[in-house]
């Protein structure tokens, strides 16, 4: 287990943006990308892309790896999977609670 | 990815019956498995003790939001805040709403829980880890118990 991640930005907030979603779509092919590669073919400036990457980074969705003078970004599936599992868990608890409620009122 | 949970369930019981099961604190405690200290009052904190087998050391805490008779009951809470050592007070709670609608055969209950988008990723993972396995087992036991006694 890596060091505990201190996420400051929620995963939902991080993903609630079209540019960041498309960055994630690109990065989730598991290959690390440099900022230049991510800026290519985009209407946004390098600075704007960097800003979006930092938001994703603070939610733990991407990590930057420094190679020489360049930062490369790679995708980490854990936060998104974690949230999905957590929501599934809460959802399951409600299914169970509501089924108890059903027996309770229908008896 | 959806940031809210929504459940719809048809209950073969009149709206007034379902309303009582939701808002009478003793009846709520029966099916939710919590021993509440007192009645639900809008704007006030509701406290109690979880009565779930194996989880009796946990506290229940929610803030009652709205009680519109036979229509809407809502509260905010920290969903399944099962880590007794964690401080949940700084986190934005989620909103739980029970909406009731009369149908030909009884009552349609729509439950929504929203606000998961405000919870930081770290908490979710931790909460899930805390619960993984243990709760699932407990839920199975209870389901067995309920189906045997009903």
Secondary-structure topology with pairs:
The complex is a heterodimer of chains A (107) and B (150).
Chain A (H helix, E strand, L loop, with lengths): L10 H5 L2 H10 L5 E2 H5 L6 H13 L3 E6 L2 E6 L2 H29 L1
Antiparallel strand pairs in A: 1-3, 2-3
Helix pairs in contact in A: 2-4
Chain B lengths: L3 E8 L3 H9 L1 H8 L1 E3 L8 E6 L8 E10 L3 E6 L16 E10 L2 E9 L6 H11 L2 H16 L1
Antiparallel strand pairs in B: 1-7, 2-3, 3-4, 4-5, 5-6, 6-7
Helix pairs in contact in B: 1-2
Poorly predicted regions of chain A are: 1-7
CATH C-level category of chain B: Alpha Beta
The CATH architecture classification of the largest domain in chain A is Orthogonal Bundle
Contiguous uncertain segments of 5+ residues of chain B? 128-147
CATH topology of the largest domain in chain A: Arc Repressor Mutant, subunit A
Characterize this entry briefly.
The complex is a heterodimer of chains A (107) and B (150). Chain A contains five helices and three strands. Chain A has 107 residues and is of the alpha+beta class.
Summarize the structure in words.
The complex is a heterodimer of chains A (107) and B (150). Chain A is an alpha+beta fold and 107 residues long. Chain A folds into two domains: 8-76, Winged helix-like DNA-binding domain superfamily/Winged helix DNA-binding domain (Arc Repressor Mutant, subunit A), CATH 1.10.10.10; 77-107. Helices cover 58% and strands 13% of the residues of chain A. A three-stranded antiparallel sheet of chain A has the order 1-3-2. In chain A, α2 (18-27) crosses α4 (46-58). The model of chain A is unreliable at 1-7 (pLDDT under 50). By secondary structure, chain B is an alpha+beta fold. Chain B has one domain (4-149): START domain (Alpha-D-Glucose-1,6-Bisphosphate, Chain A, domain 4, 2-Layer Sandwich), CATH 3.30.530.20. Helices cover 29% and strands 35% of the residues of chain B. In chain B, strands 1-7-6-5-4-3-2 form a seven-stranded antiparallel sheet. The radius of gyration of chain B is 16 Å and the shape is globular. The chains are: A alpha+beta (107), B alpha+beta (150). The interface between A and B is large, with 42 and 43 residues.
